[in-house]
Give the backbone structure.
Amino acid sequence: MMLVRAQDWRPRGIDDLEPDAWRALRQTGSTCVVAGPGAGKTEFLAQRAVYLLETGLCPAPYRVLAISFKSDAASNLAARVRKRCPPELSNRFTSLTFDAFTKSLVDRFLTAIPADWRPSHPYDIAFPAFRQVSSFLDLARLNAPEEWLAEVAGLGAGNFESRHVGAYRLPIVRPAPQTGKEFTIHRWWSDQLGAQPRSALSFVSLNRLAELLLRSYPHIRRALQLTYPFVFVDEFQDTTYAQYDFLLSAFGGANNAVTAVGDDKQRIMTWAGARIDAFDRFATDFTAVRIPLLFNFRSSPDLVHIQHVVARALDPTAMPTIARAARQVDGEVAQVWHSPTTAREAEHLAQWLVDDMAIRGRVPRDYAILVKQKSDDFEADLAAPLALTALRLRNESHTLGRTTLQDLLSDTFAKIGVALLRLGATRRAPDAWQLCSAALLEIRAVASGDDVAEARTEAELTAFLTTLRAEMANTPPTVENTVALADQVLAFLDVAAVARTYLEYASGDLLAIMVDAFQQHLAASAPGATTWGECLDAFEGVGQIPLMTVHKSKGLEYDTIVFVGLDDQAWWAHRPGDPEGLATFFVALSRAKQRAIFSFCRERGRRQRVAELFQLLTDAGVPEVAI
Ligand SMILES: Nc1ncnc2c1ncn2[C@@H]1O[C@H](COP(=O)(O)OP(=O)(O)OP(=O)(O)O)[C@@H](O)[C@H]1O
C-alpha cells in the first residue's frame, strides 16, 4: 500500500472540507470540534481517520480508536471509513461504544481488578430501573447512621447512578465511608458485586471498574495509549461523568491526540448524566484547541434559517451557519399542521405522504416520523391509516427482548445473518456476498495471505449457500420456517466463534440478546410476505417509513421529517426555557434536509407548556395550516 504525502492528501467521497475542518484535520494535538447539526462532524471524523491511515501518520501496527455512545453511531462511522479506504488500512480503525470498550477492558483484566471491587466471573449485566433505584435508596435511608440521614435522603433515584456513582472514583482499597453519599454509593456497589448467583453490573459500574483498572495498573494504561495514538469521541456533548473520567484516566496527560466533536445545542442526555461542562473540562484537561465549524451540508438554506432561530433560543451567541445544500422543494419548507382529531391527522398524513412521493419521486425511507416518546402509542394511531394507502410504518424504537429494532439492525451478527439469508434468497446480492465472505474469514480466524485457508472458507460458504438456496426455494416464508432458517444460520456461523471474533461480544450476553432479537424479528417479518425477498425487505425496513423517538434519530437525516405530537401531553415534563426540551426540538428539526412538518392535534392535548416552541416556529416564519 502506497502512502500519500500529508500535503497531497485529499478527502475521499466528498469534494472538499471547509477551511476550519482542514485545520482540525491536520491538528497534531488534542482538539475539540464544536459545530452545529449537519456540519459534517461525523464525516470529519471519518475523513480524519482516512487521512491518518493513508498518510502513515498512524503507521501499522498503531490504531485509531473512535468511541461513540450508540452502537449504530459506532457502526456508521466504521462503515464510512471502510467505504473510504482499503481494508488493510481500515482494519486499523476501531470503532466502539463507550460501553463496549470499557466492558472489554473489564472482561480482559477481570482478575486484576483490586480485590475489594472485583466482580464474579462471569457476571451479569444489570439495567437498574428507576423503581429499583428508588427502593434501594429507601433501604439505604433506613440503614443510614443518624448523622447522615439527611444527606442520604437528599439523593434522588433519577440521577443517583449517573451523577453520583458515575462521578465516584473507586479507591484501590475500599475505605470506611466518610459521608452519607459515600455510604450509599458503597452499598450500591455491595449490592451489585454481591448479587446472587453472580455479580450484576450496570454499564456505569463497568465504566468505573475500567477506570480503576487503568489507575491501578499503569502498564495497562500505557499499552492502551501506545496502541491508540489517535482517539476520537463523537457526540461529545453527551459524555457522562463516568465516561469523561474514564477518558481522562486513559488518555489524559499523555501524548495521545484526542479529537472530541459535538454540539452543545444537541445535548439531550442530561437526564442520563451528560455533564454540561464536558467541552470546557476537555479543553483544560487535554489542552485542546477549540475549532468551530460553520457550514451546514445537510439542510436547505430556508431550513438552516429556521434552525438558527431555535439555536439562538438555546444559545443567544450562536453564530449563523452557512447552508451548503440546495433547496429542492417548491412551496413551504416547514409547516405546523393543526388537526381536530387523531383520525384526521393520520388520514391527512397518509394522503400527503402518498402524494408527495408521487410528485417528487421519493421513496418511504426519505421520510421519518419523529415523536418525543412512547413511539408504540403513535404506532397504534398511525399504522392502520397509513396501511390503507399501502404505506408501511416501521417503529424503529420497537422493543425486541432486551434491545430495540434500531440496535438490532446495526448489530454485527444481525448484519451477517441477514446478508446470508439474502444470498439464500437471490444470487444478485454482491454487497451481501462481500460482507459474508469477509466476515467468515474473520470468524474462521483465517490469517490474511493464507490462500489455502481462504479458498477453503470460500468453498464452505458456497456449499452452505447451495443448501440454503435449495431450502429457501422450496419453503414459503412462514414463522415456522424462519425458525428453522435462523437455526441453520446460527449453526453455520458458529455462535461461539462469533463471540470470540468481535470485541463487542467478548463476554456477557450481548450476542445472546441479539441472537434472540434476530430470531424474533425474522419471525415477525414473515406474515404477509409472499417471497423470502419480501420477508427480508420487511426485516430490513425496505420500503417502510421509519417512526422513532427524537433520541433514536440523533445523527440521522431524512429528506422530510414529520414530528407528530407537539403538545403538552407528549411534552409533559417540559418547562418553559428548559434547555433539554429545546435541544430535543432542535435535534428533531435539524434531521430534515428539505422539509420539516410539526403536527399538533387538539385531541392529544393542549399547547400551553409547549407555547414557546410554537412561538419559535412563528418567529421563524413557519405558517400554521388547518388540516
Ligand atoms: N465536506 C462535506 N462535503 C459534502 N457533504 C458533506 C461534507 N461533510 C458532511 N457532508 C454530508 O452532510 C451530511 C451531514 O453530515 P454529518 O452527518 O457528518 O453531520 P453531523 O455534523 O455529524 O450532524 P449532526 O450533528 O446533525 O448529526 C451528510 O449527508 C454528509 O454526507
